[in-house]
Amino acid sequence: MAGNESIETPLLRVPFESLRRTTRERKYVIDEVQSVMSTLHEASSRPCTPNDGEKTLSGILHRLEGLKRKLHETTRVEEAEARRCRARLGHLADIGLPQKDAATLWNDARMDRILTDYMLRRGYHRSAVQLGSERQIEELVDVHIFADAHAILEGLARRDCSAALAWCAQHRTRLRKLRSKLEFMLHTQEFVELVRQERMLEAIAYSRRHLSPWADLYQAELQRALAALAFRAGTACKPYAVLFDEGAWRRLADLFRKDLYRLHSMPLEAQLSIHLQAGLSALKTPQSYSSTSSKEDPLSTEKFQKLAEQLPWSKHVHSKLICAITHDLMNEHNPPMVLPNGAVYSQKAVEITAAKNHGIFTCPKTGVSCDVNDLRRAYIS
Fold it and tell me: What are the residue ranges of zinc fingers typed RING-Gid-type (predicted)?
């Protein structure tokens, strides 16, 4: 129960945190309206000329119109996030906890949104939108968050920082609270591109306007960037060659994704990766990598072994045996039975098979036959 709640937390946290931020923004706008009304009250109590009064009223009207637009936008976002919260709470209530006889249906209800989340994170935006629409789970996935992000990532792939810088400006206050380095790195990359093109005067002017304000926070990085004016592109000096490295744009995209997830209270890892790693960790044992491993063990295949390469071994306090015939767990109620050749099958499998062959059990792997009375019970430690 607790594990399931932990995995499902991001589903509710994303719209809830957004709703909470929007509520704070609404309070800020309302405080601004009260401030404008106080200004209006003070202006009305002072004697002034008709021209001054007109200018004051015009300025107040302009501020109120701006605040009205902010309130409309805030209301729209609040309604959308509240709708998502209701839809996601209803979804979790509908699927409930996994039932033993309906595990497949329970997993199917979750798999669609997990796959949509993975595709959004990997940049398959159209496919994600199509899947969400076909399965009618638009309110259960965060397509609206990744819509702008998709355009920004495409811009970075074209070596264009303009959309990313606009996004940073829009969320500057919250990014500063997160101590984000993204905006500084974007400006640094713009500066480096000017140096790469040998537009030195423009690069110097750009650094004064956009990089110098960050000197108190990132002095060492700023000094290294400015030194690129002397080394230029193609340098073999490692501390400066990395500035001109083609991988810098990929690192910027990764940094943007990280800050996007943090900004919206989303986990850094996709839910699909989390589920897959948990499952592989639970299955990973040295036996899986041996030549005698069961073909039904997913980790007996090379692709799954590669996926589980960096994962820890599964810790089994007690041994568990699964019958190769019935696929049932062998325990005190269905004990393991050992054939004279050392093969082990469950008592249930032995009884079912032997009943069809006059009390003779034949090992399906080796073809060895024996009387059921010749089998002995094994005890699991």
Answer: 297-366
Q: 264 and 142 in contact (C-beta within 8 Å)? A: yes
Query: How far is the CA of 290 from the CAs of 1, 296, 297, 308, 315, in angstroms?
Result: 34, 13, 11, 15, 17
Distance CA 366, CA 348 (A): 19
pTM of the model: 0.71
For the record, the structure tokens of 119 come out as 């595709």
User: Cβ(228)–Cβ(239) under 8 Å?
Assistant: no
Distances (CA, A) of 88 to 13, 66, 98, 141: 10, 33, 17, 9
Which two tokens mark 165? 């810088």
CATH 3.30.40.10 fits 321-377, yes or no: yes
| Of 313, 305, 325, the residue nearest 284 (C-alpha) | 313
Domain boundaries, the chain: 1-97, 145-263, 271-307, 321-377
**Which residues are bridge partners to 98 per DSSP?**
none
Query: Got the DSSP string for 69-91?
Result: HHHHHHHHHHHHHHHHHHHHHHH
Q: How far apart are CA 304 and CA 276, in angstroms?
A: 10
Residues 6+ apart with CB under 8 A from 307: 276, 280
Residue 34, classified by CB atoms within 10 Å of its CB into exposed (0-12), middle (13-18) or buried (19+), is: exposed
Main-chain phi, psi angles of 58, to 5 degrees:
-65, -40
Give pLDDT tens digits along the chain (381 positions).
344 555 678 888 889 888 888 888 888 888 888 888 887 777 777 777 777 777 778 888 888 888 888 888 888 888 989 999 999 899 888 877 766 666 666 677 788 889 999 999 998 989 999 999 998 899 999 998 998 899 999 999 999 999 999 999 999 989 999 999 999 999 999 999 999 888 999 999 999 999 999 999 999 999 988 888 887 776 777 777 888 888 899 999 999 999 999 999 888 888 888 888 888 888 888 878 877 777 778 888 888 888 888 888 876 656 678 888 888 888 888 999 999 888 899 999 999 988 888 889 988 888 888 888 889 888 766
Q: Which two tokens stand for residue 127?
A: 């496919």
Helix runs in 197-311, H state only:
200-206, 219-231, 238-241, 247-263, 271-283, 302-307
